[in-house]
Amino acid sequence: MADLNKPAWRNDAFAKVTGRTRYTDDLKFPNLLHAVPVYSEHVHATLRGVDTRAAAASEGVVRVITARDVPGTNRFGQIVQDFRVFADDRIRHNGDVVALVVAQTRDQALRAAEMVRVDAIPLPSVLDPEEAMKPGAMLVHEEFGTNIINTHRIRRGDIEEGFRVSEVIVEHEFATPWVEHAYMEPEVAVCQVRSDGVMEVYGSMQHPFSTRRFVSAVLGVPLADVEVIGTPMGGGFGGKDDTAAIVCARAALAARLTGRPVKLMYRRDWSIRESYKRHPYRVKYKMGLTRAGRIKAVHCTIIADGGAYCSVTPWVTWRSTVQCCGPYEVPHVHCDTFGVYTNNPVTGAMRGFGSPQVNFVVESMIDIAAQRLNMSAIELRRINMVRQGSVTITGQKLDNHTVAMEQVLDAVLRETDFENKVRTCPRGAGHEEEQYGIGLAMSYRGVSLGAEGVDFCAAMINVQADGSILIETGIHENGQGAESAMMLIAARELGVAVERIRYRRSSTSVIPDSGTTVASRGTIMGGGAVTLAAQDLKQKIAEAVAPAMDCLPGELEFRDEQIVHPPSGRSTSFDKAIQEMFSQKRFPHAFGVFKAPTVTWDEHDGQGKAYFTWVYGCQAIELMVNRKTGKVRLLNAVAAHDVGSAVNRAMLEGQFYGGMAMGIGYALHEDLEVVDGRIQNANLNAYRIPRAMDMPEMKAIIIENPDPESPSAAKSIGEPTNELMAPAIANAIFNASGKRHFHLPIRCVPEG
Amino acid sequence: MTITVNGTVRELTPDVLQKRLVEYLREDLDLTGTKNACDIGACGACTLLIDDLPLKICTKRVHEVAGKRITTIEGLARNDGTLHPLQQAFVDHGAIQCGFCTPGMVLTAHAFLLKHPTPTRSEIRRAIYGNLCRCTGYQQIVDAIAAAAPYYATHSQP
After folding, report:
1. ipTM strictly over 0.90?
2. Per the domain annotation, does B80 fall within a domain?
3. Neighboring chain A residues of B75 at a CB cutoff of 8 Å
4. Does residue A621 share a domain with residue A581?
5. Pairing, β B69-71 against β B2-5
6. Is the residue at A496 inside a domain?
7. Is the distance from CB of A563 to CB of A557 less than 8 angstroms?
8. pTM for this structure?
């Protein structure tokens, strides 16, 4: 649906390219105070006290805040209330904050922060999730009586029968690392108390409603007394949820206690130290197949290091469980998944949300199995992959949307000439210094939250008397272009130029709580709500103008800034129709709510309709492995994803490329080094995200199968693009070098 | 002591000379397009042009650039407010997502194209090596810089 020939469009591009965009740290407030957090040296310790006297007496310091100063609750969490705004009973990881120093200047606050003394008795720390699961292990949260945060399981078919009828069994263990989101803008918040007593919160966060809940709980005030105002944000990738909300809550508390506006801006090393990461996984995976290549059984155990606090670990590991067999039909499945507390860095939501880990495992296993069967890995995928009407491993029949698995696979095979090229791969044979490899991986992915939570979203369209249009939704602009997508969907539905539309800076005091802008749900949920609001608005306009046009409201069409009655050829302009509405005392105002279709879930057997619709993707990569240096040089990457309907083509392609880049970082570069619970590489010089020269040229193939479950026909793209490069690269490296890698990031060992 | 910022000559008092340059620009002059994202010169978000050469300035003090000519992202657009062709190329090619790296990226690319108006894509990638972007995978940024290059090749004062 998007026009291929049009240049890219987004509502904030001009401001961003000229440096005029005001991110949180760019906002100016009179009489502003500056706050900085205070950490301790500990990883796990009983906290006996925090001595703030010297810091409080330091030059310029206005207040030093600790857990004792919190008027409401000090404990918060979206699922389990175990996060502390300030450490109270214990220090549970090295990123726990014990105090906040508030001073006239940032330098004064930084100096005073050094003077805070922490009185704590070190405890043995539990750093290995498998050890943490054992009875008698040191408990991270004593009140829970266990370190197991959550379990999920799938019991499908008869696992023993499945392996009995299997002729080939492949079994391996895999491990993946912590991954830092590395959004370019660190966490930051500015809060001020308005004259009516309402706390205004500006901050870099992707879940304004959760932030509001957190701030109101910490302050002990009603939700209506906190207004979180959407502020341009320098990237999130799932990482600006819990930690960002805590940062906002601390700044709000400081503003409440001092009566002045307070800014809490994170330094990069604090951000990396304290914020949650992608979960490291250990996966034991056993697959049984017939010689003809039919997967009969999968037995897997997934252990996720949840770190010191629960965050959204139960939801992340749920997606891993639902998608633990990849996009394949498997009759007999036995999966056990564990989220586990440790004293390591906290883990939570990150782009992919539990899929990058399991996809690395599953898509590596498929290539390993194909090699064992002496069969083409593409053929093995074709034999087992989901098709129209297939039943997933959780018993969901895929019949309410186009199952595009084969379509995306074929698109990538064609574009790359994969099957000819893969035959030329040496797999370690030969003597060339650089060996060529091509590899691919594919996945399906449940859209939006699924059975994780209540899933609905609101949008408002408010047409002004002159025909200009304001829209607002509960979806947050993380930098991905969500506002632009909402505006284009509104323009398309109303048949008007997008230039008429302004996206209203969202406020939690105006739009209803629509959940968080995660789970690739922005376009499908927000776009759905905008579409429904636009349809309601059109109905209202049509009712107002139909009598004068001598027709029925239902006969009118909205296109090219006109409201047209096709049978008679009569038309009126959008502007005139709006004037007519006001003269009839009708507001051209509409409210749309998109409720995600119902999903079902039985936790006991892990069966149910897990997601209301699915997306399909396939990515391939060509590379060279240097035998002498072990260096991997990427040549070319191709991705095909079914997006339902393309709304904003250039932004969509940007999601492809950005997701693939992050996947390449996961495969080859990114390794958060955690030693004894302490992060060693807490800045961007040492934590290495991909740079321009690390990246190959990329091609995005957009597949459109409009989704009947989505009012706008569009689905998701943010995360699917980020979950395939690691296995594609692992497979390509095997095809080049003959060496299989079971750990991320992949390190090719130089020969000789 | 003076400094020229986006064409305006500014006096530097002794206390200003000791300030961090990024604070002077962002706080004193309200030129907030210059970002500070790592404090150690690792990410490139603070890049600006000193006498037309790109420099990561988050670790610099004002006195280190006294007497120089500074161009920030706010100084690149034309006086009438229209975008520089390089900026327009970033907009048209979808090279902007969250926008936090954009000012430094645009200025690095501008300095590069001034000296190398007919680059290959791989030379462009090398030129922006020090500017991190987490959103775009650099593909559309490279597209934008490549598309703007002919303008530099055909104009004497781009």
Report:
1. yes
2. no
3. none
4. no
5. parallel
6. yes
7. yes
8. 0.97
